[in-house]
Design a protein that fits this description.
Structural class: alpha/beta
Helix content: 25-40%
Keywords: Carbohydrate metabolism, Glycosidase, Hydrolase
Family: Belongs to the glycosyl hydrolase 3 family.
Protein name: Beta-glucosidase
Number of strands: 31
CATH superfamily of the largest domain: Glycoside hydrolase, family 3, N-terminal domain
Strand content: 15-25%
GO molecular function: hydrolase activity, hydrolyzing O-glycosyl compounds
CATH class of the largest domain: Alpha Beta
CATH topology of the largest domain: TIM Barrel
Number of domains: 3
InterPro entries: Cellulose_deg_GH3, Fn3-like, GH, Glyco_hydro_3_AS, Glyco_hydro_3_C, Glyco_hydro_3_C_sf, Glyco_hydro_3_N, Glyco_hydro_3_N_sf
Distance between the termini: 37 Å
């Protein structure tokens, strides 16, 4: 099956536009999920299917269900999936197979489905992908919150192209990524999976991710799934906030990115579980946003309606409610949907509703090439999921994700530094490199299985410093303290019910010597500089792992204070999936680096920043709090002047300085104009080549405006050599001012201040522009999301 010529042209235009530097032009890519030819093909297949054969196409299972002694069991296949299956769920992150073994396993399963089931329909093998293909040996990129701080759509697209290639080589065609939730509190354990707190930034980066993952044709790409629809991890009942912000990244990816799969959240909307919310999944998603693709459940979310939310009397009722609301597929195992035959007999649901879900499931398979006469499963030959080119991208990504929060001049290290004390629980280990939904985190947390730190090779900070410093200085290492003793996290036992947190801690500390505080203080006092590697690891942050607060875990805060007391300059390197409080000692540290979970090349990247081989460029994609209060922070509401954060959204230091000048724009524009040009000059006035992330914000000037006080509406990464100056231009659409009011989208005329700066509080230039004309109602909703860069 091939897409028609008109669609091919649209896809090619979209590919060209996104592959260039920044969004040159926005193309609405709202193309149909299906075509008449595809409909006919799928309907022909369905016309000969039994009810049992249809139902399995809207269910998923895990690979272990059909395995024995680590290999496929044809006998189990015949018992468990005699009629086929829709999806194999998180198929690689639960296995310890080499790349070749994994591909051969997938081929064996698909061969069984093609040759031994009556319908001969292959399964979709799906996996997580926010940090790369979650499988043994595959490149592990920085966690998504770190990539959010890169503000680099082009890098994210390149990374996800490698993910696509790896997944397709193994026979996988579908990803439960990207995660688009806006995360506005560091207390949420899943904040690390997000691109931060801002809808515009999340939309831009998410769009780049799916462009790389899906490519130009579903038949050779990997289908992306946006999650979690909509407003997960936050309060989503305010319609204005929901529509303008929490829905925006999903909507942009559907309309511009061509995404055709969505995963609803575990949460609730207006008191109703999203998994059964007619308003969320049909009224908003399908009717208003015109989404016509596949809706897949989060793992166990349908039965959670019955067992957890208590909004159904049985699993059967939960299944009926979910399908009627707009859900299509139950993952990760059939719990509720097996009761559907009873529901049909009892008249609780019609076959039309079930057939619609089955049809969408099969259309997705057809789009991915799985219903071809001879579907291509995997790539022949020896597979390498972490070639040198991939590692280089992982290194570049890590360099761009690490935020320099403070520097009194100690960084980059000077040539007279000869003795370095490298201390802290994250100094020489690799668990702090790995975010949740990496292969390593998933195999160790969910399956209590150790991972191989050499497959792919994980570079610790100690190894990175030794690689970069060599014999130029002496590095003495001592842990000094543990990550957290006793455990400073609890597992949410809903659906877990075991001591997997204790198990993963034992895996993390296996083979490590006991920390020696006195030795750490001794070598620190004798050093020229102290590098303290602190923060979280994979058992202290992630889904199902809830910490008691957001200060440095365990005794680490006290440890840092003791290091400061030595009088030697302390360079604090903080790892983790969230912002962690530094207010007690921020003023006493010589430098602070926020490393997040930087992936396989994290140690080399941090070392290069410390020694000055790399000039840091990352900017915060979240607001850094100053207190441990459990509250949401959103820079768009404007910070309280009496309660400023530790560091604002968009903030990040460099080893050089930049000068902004000469803002130019028209004084007024019409509300129906296509674009408004706003330009300025940026110059590198320091002594080191660097990259500045220039940010465009808009604030309403009219007192009657209901628009939020400040909003990001554009950004550009500008590479500048020493003394170099460049002019940059933002082409802003008045439609980007759209607000959701009285159940419609409105663009209000009036006066707006356009601000250009290096963070949301560090505004260098501003210009007032009057948007003339009567309020404009967008009858078909919003279609323009981004400023165009010149």
């Amino acid at each position: 099956m091939r897409i028609n010529n008109k669609l091919n042209l649209a896809v090619l235009i979209f590919s060209f536009l996104l592959s260039s530097c920044g969004p040159k032009k926005e193309v609405n890519k709202t193309v149909p999920f299906s075509t008449p030819d595809l409909d006919a093909k799928v309907e022909k297949v369905m016309s000969n299917m039994t009810l049992a054969e249809k139902l399995v196409q809207i269910e998923g299972i895990r690979p272990m269900e059909i395995m024995e002694d680590g290999k496929i069991s044809l006998e189990k296949c015949r018992q468990v999936i005699p009629d086929g299956i829709g999806h194999f769920c998180q198929f690689s992150s639960s296995l310890t197979m080499s790349s070749n073994e994994l591909r051969d396993f997938v081929r064996s399963v698909q061969n069984y489905l093609l040759t031994e089931t009556r319908t001969g329909i292959p399964a979709i093998f799906h996996e997580e992908a926010i940090t790369g293909f979650a499988t043994q040996g595959a490149t592990t990129f920085p966690q998504q919150i770190g990539m959010g701080c890169s503000w680099n759509p082009e890098q994210i697209e390149k990374n996800s192209i490698t993910t696509r290639n790896n997944m397709r080589a193994a026979g996988a065609t579908f990803a439960l990524s990207p995660m688009l939730d806006l995360s506005r509190t560091a207390h949420w354990e899943r904040i690390e999976e997000s691109y931060g707190e801002d809808a515009y930034l999340t939309s831009r980066l998410g769009l780049a991710f799916v462009k790389g993952l899906q490519g130009d044709d579903f038949r050779t790409g990997v289908a992306a799934t946006t999650k979690h629809f909509a407003g997960y991890g936050t309060q989503n009942d305010n319609p204005k906030e929901l529509y303008e912000e929490y829905i925006m990244p999903h909507e942009a990816l559907y309309k511009v990115g061509g995404v055709k799969s969505v995963m609803p959240s575990y949460g609730k909307y207006k008191g109703t579980a999203v998994a059964i919310s007619q308003e969320m999944l049909t009224d908003i998603l399908r009717n208003q946003l015109k989404f016509d693709g596949l809706v897949v459940s989060d793992y166990g979310a349908i039965n959670l309606v019955y067992k957890g939310h208590k909004q159904a009397e049985s699993s059967k009722e939960a299944a009926v409610k979910a399908l009627k609301a707009g859900m299509d597929i139950e993952l990760a195992k059939p719990i509720a949907f097996p009761f559907l035959p009873e529901a049909i007999e009892e008249g609780l649901i019609s076959m039309d509703v079930i057939d619609a879900a089955v049809k969408r499931s099969l259309i997705m398979k057809a789009k991915l090439g799985l219903l071809d006469e001879k579907p291509e499963i995997g790539k022949d030959g020896e597979l390498d999921f972490d070639p040198p080119a991939n590692r280089k991208m992982a290194y570049e990504s890590a360099c761009q994700s690490i935020v320099l929060l403070k520097n009194n001049g100690v960084l980059p290290l000077k040539s007279n530094v000869k003795k370095i004390a490298l201390v802290g629980p994250n100094a020489a280990t690799v668990q702090n490199l790995l975010g949740d939904y990496t292969y390593q985190s998933m195999i160790s947390f969910w399956w209590s299985t150790p991972f191989d730190p050499n497959d792919p090779k994980l570079i610790s900070l100690k190894a990175g410093l030794e690689n970069r410093i060599g014999d130029k200085a002496t590095i003495q290492h001592e842990r000094g303290c543990d990550w957290s003793t006793p455990l400073e996290a609890v597992v949410k036992t809903d659906g877990l019910g075991d001591d997997r947190l204790g198990k993963i801690k034992m895996l993390a500390i296996k083979g490590l010597p006991q920390p020696d505080l006195q030795n750490a203080l001794k070598i620190s006092a004798e050093s020229d500089v102290i590098i303290a590697a602190v923060g979280e690891n994979l058992y202290l942050c992630g889904e199902g792992r809830e910490r008691k607060g957001i200060r440095l875990p365990g005794e680490q805060e006290a440890f840092v204070e003791q290091l400061i007391a030595t009088g030697k300059p302390v360079i604090l390197v903080m790892f983790g999936g969230r912002q962690q409080l530094v207010n007690k000692f921020e003023g006493k540290c010589a430098a602070i680096l926020q490393a997040w979970f930087p992936g396989e090349e994290g140690g080399n990247a941090i070392a290069d920043i410390i020694v000055g081989n790399v000039n840091p460029s990352a900017k915060l994609c979240v607001t850094y709090p100053k207190s441990g209060e459990k509250q949401e922070i959103n820079y768009k509401n404007a910070y309280d002047a009496n309660n400023l954060p530790q560091y604002p959204f968009g903030y990040g230091l460099s080893y050089t300085t930049y000068e902004y000048s000469d803002i130019v724009s028209q004084a007024n524009a019409d509300i129906t104009d296509d674009r408004i040009n706003i330009s300025c000059k940026v110059k590198n006035t320091g002594g080191m080549d660097g990259t500045e992330i220039v940010q465009l914000y808009v604030s309403p000037k009219d007192a009657t405006s209901t628009m939020k006080p400040i909003q990001l509406k554009g950004f550009q990464r500008v590479e500048l050599k020493v003394g170099e100056e460049k002019q940059i231009t933002f082409k802003f659409s008045p439609e980007q001012l759209a607000q959701y009011k009285n159940s419609q989208w409105i663009v209000e005329g009036g006066k707006y201040e356009f601000k250009i700066g290096s963070s949301c509080t560090d505004i260098q230039l501003s210009k007032e522009i009057e948007i003339k004309g009567s309020n404009r109602i967008l009858e078909n909703g919003r279609n323009v999301f981004f400023s165009i860069n010149e």
